[in-house]
Amino acid sequence: MTASHQPDSRLAKLRIAVVDDNAAMRGIVRSVLSAFGIVAVYEAADGPSALEILRAERIDMLICDWKMKPVDGLTLVRTLRDPDKSPCPLIPIIMLTAYAEPSKVKEARDAGVTEFLVKPFAAEDLYKRMQTIVNRPRPFVRTKMFFGPDRRRLATGYQGPERRDDAAPLS
């Protein structure tokens, strides 16, 4: 969000869960979300606590760290994307992490993360990812090996052996 933009009123209505074992980072994210006009922010220090919140509250979006204990963020994402174990398998998830390696981005994407953002982060980058989730949601797909948001951002016409012909879009 830049100084010339007003907060998006659709974002202000969101109920966000922030999961990070670092209380200071949760506070920073809460402050940034507050600047976006978001008041319904729930905090959890770990995966199990996040699951408790997600079972008790209607949460619209999750922002989580990767490196946490006893359950890391990637395991939390995989649990949330399992329709048999999750209270909300379709929830949009932003992975906010210090990991920047392309292999980590791919691993998170393949686990079902909706958006990926590296720490330290700019408020504008978080805002853009949240707007993308709200304004241009990606359809969910289910294959034998994956359940989550469609990992393809652009229609590239891929025709190779890994083409997901059996992918069933979910909405």
From TrEMBL:
Modification sites for 4-aspartylphosphate: 65
Keyword vocabulary terms for this entry? Phosphoprotein
**GO terms for biological process, alphabetical:** phosphorelay signal transduction system
Q: Which Gene3D superfamilies match?
A: 3.40.50.2300
Q: Where is the signal peptide?
A: none
Q: Which InterPro entries match?
A: Bact_response_regulator, CheY-like_superfamily, Sig_transdc_resp-reg_receiver
Q: Does the keyword Phosphoprotein apply?
A: yes
Q: Which residues cross the membrane?
A: none
| PANTHER family, sorted | CHEMOTAXIS TWO-COMPONENT RESPONSE REGULATOR, STRESS RESPONSE REGULATOR PROTEIN 1
Q: Whose protein is this, by species?
A: Alkalicaulis satelles
Query: Start and end of every Response regulatory domain?
Result: 15-134
- Protein name per its UniProtKB record: Response regulator
The domain of life is: Bacteria
